[in-house]
Structure formats: C-alpha cells, structure tokens
Amino acid sequence: MSEIPFPKGELMKGKRGLVMGVANKNSIAWGIAQQLVAQGAELAFSYIPAMESRVKSLAETIGVDFFVEADVMSDDDMDAAFAEIKNKWGTIDFLVHSIAFTDKDALKGSFVENTTRQNFKDTMDVSAFSFVDAARRSAELMPNGGAMITLTYLGSERTVPNYNVMGVAKATLEASMRYVARDLGPKGIRVNAISAGPMKTLAMAGITGGRQLMSTGRDWSLLKQDTSIEGVAGAALYLLSDLGFSCAGEVLHVDAGFHAVAVPDSVAHKE
C-alpha cells in the first residue's frame, strides 16, 4: 500500500461509503477518497467499464477492494450496484458524488450555438440527475442517518468562458442538492456540495481555455493560490464526518477565495 499524503486520524473510523467519479490520480474524488481512508473510512468505488482497470489500480494503493459497476444512465446498472452494496454491507454512512459529462464540442465558443437538444438532455442526466438518483438509493441504506456530498463549480453561479452547458448543469445540480437536503434532512442525512476552484483534472482538460482559467483563478483569488486537493479533501472530510453535524443544504466554496472577488486588485491598479 502506498503512503497516503493526507492527515491520518479516526474521524471516519467505523464508517462506510460509496465514492462515485474517480477517473484518474488527478480526480477530485480520488483526493477525497485518500483523505477518507486516512481517517479510517471503508470505501466502495463505482466505475464504468472504460475506467475499470484505472480505478481498480488506484484503489489497490489505498487498500480498497470493493467495486461496483455503475453506468448512471442505466437504471438496471444502478439497481445492480446498490443491491451489491446492500448485500455486502447492509448499510452505508456516506456518499461522494463527483460525476459530470458533456460533449467536448459544447465546451467552447457560444452556449447558444453549440448546445444541442440531445446533449443538453444527456448532460443533465449524467451531471445532475445522477446525484438525485444516487442520493435516493443511498438514503435507503442509511437507516441511522448519514452524509452526502456532490462536487460543483462557480460556473453554476456566474458565466465562465466555454463552460456553457456544464454551468447550467451545475446550477441544476446545486438546486437539486438543496431539495435532496430538504427531503432527507428529517431522516438525519446531511446533504451538501463543494464548489471547488479550477484544478488539473480530466474535466478541466476538456474545457477550451482550461489552463487560462486556472491561472486566472490563482491571480484573482484572495489567497493568490491555486485550489489544492488537500483543501477540497479537507472540506469533504468536514462535511462527511461528525464535525459537520449541523451543516446541510450548503454549497461550500473551496477556491482560495476566488468566488468572493467581484473586481480583482490588478484591475484597480491599472489606473
């Protein structure tokens, strides 16, 4: 097993949960998974066939050997995946949802011109409804309460060049998260989202101008820093552990303070 580069402890000791959305070693979901394991959590990873070998190879490095195949656009796949989790564990304590997808051609230029009806539907299905569906299924395995998080981005609140339909999907995801939080809150299930700043992920690589987005995020941020996976994983640990006991329906920005800036100092200093 490789050395996990995250603080170790027992905040998640005795807790089990599902992590959805690991694509490679740069995935936000992978950073969160490492932090959870470092704090004693027991994990299951979902995967799609195209990612199976990659996900399993990574998981082995942190001692995880429980995997479920789950295409979030297939009810049959989701039925089978959650049945397998129930059969093995009976109950779970948390869900990490970090899944989004759209046609690469939609992530450039004009939102109006490059958004097709079918891609709009598919983007909403994978990037927003998948959380609602996974939350409903996970809640059935949380009779004693639990916690869920999903990953979003500032493009849900403000226009971002080339983010286009994905920004609309993230806005839908955030609204869905609040309604899920309302419905599941009385059952003792806390539901929140993390709005992470630009990072070197597979998703960011698919956006035209993604590298420039990262540079701007650093230069305009209050901390003058890139968003770090350690920061995002730490926020996830807070929301999923008992430390976040009274937090629900929240979109927690982890972007070095970029979201708080209306006009950067560099603009004012050009006078």
Topology overview:
Elements: E1 16-20, H1 28-38, E2 42-47, H2 52-60, E3 67-69, H3 75-89, E4 94-97, H4 111-114, H5 117-139, E5 146-152, H6 164-184, E6 189-196, H7 202-205, H8 210-220, H9 229-240, E7 251-254, H10 265-268
Parallel strand pairs: 1-2, 1-4, 2-3, 4-5, 5-6, 6-7
Helix pairs in contact: 1-9, 5-6
Protein name: Enoyl-[acyl-carrier-protein] reductase [NADH]
Binding site for NAD(+): 21, 27-28, 71-72, 99, 170
Keywords: Fatty acid biosynthesis, Fatty acid metabolism, Lipid biosynthesis, Lipid metabolism, NAD, Oxidoreductase
Structure description:
- This protein is an alpha/beta fold and 271 residues long.
- The chain is built from ten helices and seven strands.
- Helix 2 links the parallel strand 2 and strand 3.
- Helix 1 crosses helix 9 and helix 5 runs parallel beside helix 6.
- The longest helix has 23 residues.
**What is the overall shape?**
globular
Taking strands numbered 1, 2, ... along the chain, how are they ordered across the largest sheet?
3-2-1-4-5-6-7
Query: Quick one: how many beta strands?
Result: 7
Residue windows where pLDDT falls under 50 for at least 5 positions:
none
N- and C-termini, Cα separation:
55 Å
Helix content: 40-55%
The tally of helices reads 10
Main sheet: strands, sense, barrel: 7 strands, parallel
Rg measurement, Å: 18 Å
- H-E order: EHEHEHEHHEHEHHHEH
Summed over residues and divided by their number, the pLDDT gives a mean of 93
Our estimate of the beta-strand percent is 5-15%
Computed structural class:
alpha/beta
Organism: Hyphococcus flavus
Catalytic activity: a 2,3-saturated acyl-[ACP] + NAD(+) = a (2E)-enoyl-[ACP] + NADH + H(+)
EC number: 1.3.1.9
Protein name: Enoyl-[acyl-carrier-protein] reductase [NADH]
